[in-house]
Each structure stands twice: as structure tokens, then as C-alpha cells.
Design brief:
The complex is a heterodimer of chains A (109) and B (342). With 109 residues, chain A is mainly α. Chain A has helices spanning 23-31, 43-47, 58-66, 73-77, 85-89, 96-106. Chain A contains six helices and no strands. Chain B has 342 residues and is α/β, with parallel strands linked by helices. Classes of the chains: A mainly alpha (109), B alpha/beta (342). At the A-B interface, α2 of A face β16 and β17 of B.
Chain lengths: 109, 342
């Protein structure tokens, strides 16, 4: 066993817009243009069926997708049951379910 | 020499202020109001932000000037038809009369959003879900209580009800609800210092002079809990409370809260009458249904049709001061227009 010298490796916390790959976000935006209208009010997450039982937070998940921070998203989106309640809530008319469907298809497995 | 007759449609603050200014400019205004009183929506209001001036003071001052100046006023009188013929404006009213003038100022105001359309908030379903207008009437009566007559121990306000909401077809911001929410939250705390007060918002738009200061005071002095998240739905509890679901977006977690009273800050929307004015006179309306001035700047109170002017909330949500200033501008524009006719 390796001796613990007290060093740890911290992953970077910053959203690195210089390096993040936005190609998936751009494709989703082309397919679901209403995605651009989000103002982050959280109505989708407040009403979310999955969010009541898990730590799924669609507002944060789709925001990370827009920023190209996609490493953890597949695992997050698996929690969504695609019930579509969020679509009924959105005051900006974002096709939230459409965004999820597109991300599920386009994100790497 | 033109006769200098001007019809003012709407006896709210804008209409009254416009008629007063017209009269002082030597015009002959005729003020048409559909209600039994002058004052419009302000008649139902208790105190005005940000100075806490009683709305009654403003209305009484304007009504006083109207009567002192001997301005002809028609009450309980609705416009049924409006047309422009050979350079004259013709207005017919529902009582069968018609009136002719050189110009008209449309100051017909706004409609309040009907909160029952947002069924998920339970207005008229749960007894302790009320609107900001209902609450203002309670302030006016000096008795703010829950449906069972008891003092509320907790009150939540929800901003943007019927504003900035595509689900109900109102994309515009009603502007004054944010500061109304702050004002009413503070007034609740003044009445009931031990009451817990929460404001759920998407954005706080403190655009007016003194508004930001009021917001700060609400936080600092009154300890109002401002939570950034829009309520998605409510349900009634067995003891007539209101259970709220929202996301606390800044914490990034779903939030539940049960309160004794939920106040929906209802927005302003364009009245159906605007479409009638637009089709009969040929003036344009904005996509949000409000009437459109010629531009947003020096010709904001003129329209694309000669002799037709607009003032106040007929062209979009405004506060009382803005409405009155705009009414003065409209009246000055009318005066200038009529003087070019002679």
C-alpha cells in the first residue's frame, strides 16, 4: 500500500469556457431553439417528479449542458422520467422535455 | 379657428391629468369614464409606493381640480364606437349619445390579470390564496386576516403572476408588481411584526427612484425572506393553509413551505377595448396588446392617426407618476396639434 504523504488531487471546479466543448449544446440549441429563453426561475425543478425523490435538478443539469460541462450529465439525465410536467410550467415556453430528449440522444454513452 | 374640443377616454389618473392640462391650455375637454366614480384602479388602492402616500390623496386632488375647472365629465358611460371622419373624431357611447371633437386622448388603462387562469396556484379554490388587489383592499379596510378571521402567522408573495408568462400569453413585464410585493410585504410586517414573510421572485426589478432603497429596507429592517424561485404549484392543507412548491434556485434545491396566506402579485394586461380602438381608428397595437405610440421617445403619446393621442397604461404598464407625466405630455401634444389646425 502506498504511503499517504498527505497530498490530494483536486479536480478543477471552474466552468472552463476556454476549453469546454460546446458542440453538443449548439446542436441541441439548433433542434430546440426555445432552450435559449431560459431565465433560471426553477419552475421546472420545483414541479419535477424525479426531483421529489432524487437529487435530480433539471435547471442545473441543462445549464451545465449549455456551458459544455457534460461529464456528469448522462448520469443525471437517467433520473428523468420524461413525464413532461416541466413543459407545462415553463413561463418562457422552453420545450424542456425536448431539450432532455435531444441531450439523451446526443451525449456520449 | 378650430373649436378645440378634445375627448378624453378614461377617468383614471392619466385621463384626469390629461383633461386638467388640456383645460389649462385653453382646450375644451370632455372626460368619459365607464365607472360610477373618477379615479380608475386607484380607487381600490390603499397606499402608493415608494412614499406610502394614500392613493385617496392623489385621486381627491385630481377630482378636485376637475370640478374646480368645470371640466365636463360623463360617468357610467362606455365608448361603443370611435371613428375619424373628415378630420373630426366621433365617439359614440353606450347610452346612445355621440360626441364630436378635434382630437381624442385614449387613456383607457389596463385590465388586471385574472388569477384563476393560473389554476396551479389555487386562486378561488383555496380560501387563503388571494391577489395583491384583494390584499390592498384589506389594507384599505384596515383588516388583514385569513379566511377564518385570524391574523396570518406566515405570508408568501409570488411575483410575476400573469406577467412574463408565455403559458398565459403575457410575455411582457408588468413592472410595478415587484415594488408592490416589497411594499405589501413590509406593510404585513408593520401590522404583524411576528409574521414570517416570504417573497418568491424570478428577478427583482427595482426600476424607480426610491425602489431599491425600499427593497433594502425590506431586507434589513423587516427581515423579509426573498427566495429566488418561481412557485410551480400550491395545494391546500387540512387547516386551510397553503403548501407551496418551488425551487430555491440559489441553493439549487427543491423547497417546500406551508403558509397561512399566499398573495399572488397579479400583472397588468391590455384591455380587450384596445383591439377595438385599433380596428376602428387604424392605430397599431404592440404584440402584447397595448396601444402603440408613434415612437418610444418624443412622439410616444402621438399615434399613427392624426388627432388620436394616447396616455398612461393604455400603452403599457406604468406607475402612477409616469402615467400622470405622460398625460401632461399627451395634452401638450394635443394642444400643439389643435393650434396647427387653426
Amino acid at each position: 500500500m502506498m504511503k499517504n504523504f498527505g497530498y490530494t488531487i483536486n479536480t478543477k471546479r471552474a466552468i472552463d469556457l476556454d476549453k469546454n466543448d460546446l458542440s453538443i449544446a449548439e446542436e441541441v440549441m439548433r433542434e430546440v431553439p426555445s432552450w435559449s429563453l431560459c431565465i433560471g426561475c426553477g419552475s421546472c425543478t420545483a414541479t419535477c417528479t424525479a426531483g421529489a425523490f432524487t437529487d435530480y435538478n433539471f435547471r442545473k443539469t441543462h445549464l451545465l449542458a449549455r456551458r459544455g460541462d457534460i461529464a456528469t450529465l448522462r448520469k443525471e439525465l437517467d433520473k428523468c422520467m420524461l413525464c413532461g410536467k416541466c413543459v407545462l410550467q415553463c413561463p418562457r415556453g422552453v420545450n424542456t422535455r425536448g431539450v432532455i430528449a435531444a441531450l439523451c440522444r446526443l451525449l456520449p454513452q | 379657428m378650430a373649436a378645440k374640443r378634445v375627448i378624453v377616454i378614461g377617468g383614471g389618473v392619466s385621463g384626469m391629468q390629461a383633461a386638467i392640462t388640456l383645460k389649462k391650455q385653453g382646450m375644451t375637454p370632455l372626460l368619459i369614464e365607464k365607472d360610477i366614480n373618477l379615479g380608475g384602479k386607484l380607487c381600490r388602492w390603499d397606499r402608493l409606493f415608494p412614499s406610502q402616500t394614500p392613493a385617496k390623496e392623489v385621486v381627491e386632488s385630481l377630482v378636485g381640480q376637475i370640478s374646480e375647472l368645470g371640466i365636463r365629465t360623463l360617468l357610467c358611460c362606455e365608448v361603443s364606437e370611435i371613428a375619424r371622419n373628415e378630420g373630426k373624431i366621433e365617439v359614440s357611447t353606450t347610452d346612445g349619445n355621440s360626441y364630436e371633437a378635434e382630437a381624442v386622448i385614449i387613456a383607457s388603462g389596463f385590465d388586471l390579470f385574472n388569477a384563476t387562469r393560473k389554476e396551479e396556484y389555487g386562486y378561488k379554490i383555496y380560501p387563503n390564496v388571494i391577489t395583491s388587489v384583494d390584499l390592498e383592499e384589506m389594507f384599505k379596510e384596515g383588516r388583514v386576516v385569513c379566511a377564518d378571521g385570524k391574523a396570518p402567522r406566515s405570508v408568501a408573495f409570488l411575483h410575476c403572476v400573469g406577467s412574463r408568462d408565455r403559458q398565459v400569453g403575457n410575455c411582457h413585464c408588468s413592472r410595478v408588481c415587484c415594488i408592490t410585493g416589497v411594499k405589501q410585504a413590509m406593510e404585513i410586517k408593520e401590522l404583524y411584526p411576528d409574521c414570517n414573510v416570504y417573497n418568491f421572485y424570478m428577478d427583482m426589478r427595482m426600476f424607480g427612484s426610491g425602489y431599491e432603497e425600499l427593497y433594502t429596507k425590506a431586507q434589513e429592517k423587516y427581515r423579509i425572506n426573498f427566495i429566488r424561485g418561481r412557485i410551480s404549484e400550491c395545494s391546500g392543507t387540512i387547516d386551510s393553509g397553503v403548501r407551496i412548491k418551488a425551487e430555491d434556485t440559489l441553493a439549487g434545491r427543491p423547497l417546500k413551505l406551508t403558509v397561512d396566506m399566499l398573495v399572488l402579485l397579479v400583472g397588468k394586461q391590455a384591455p380587450a377595448l384596445n383591439a377595438k380602438f385599433a380596428s376602428e381608428l387604424g392605430i397599431t397595437v404592440s404584440p402584447d396588446g397595448f396601444l402603440k405610440g408613434m415612437d418610444c421617445f418624443e412622439n410616444a403619446t402621438r399615434t399613427s392617426v392624426e388627432g388620436v393621442f394616447v396616455a398612461g397604461t393604455a400603452t403599457g404598464p406604468k406607475n402612477v407618476g409616469e402615467s400622470m407625466s405622460e398625460a401632461v405630455k399627451a395634452a401638450m401634444d394635443v394642444s400643439e396639434y389643435i393650434n396647427t389646425l387653426s
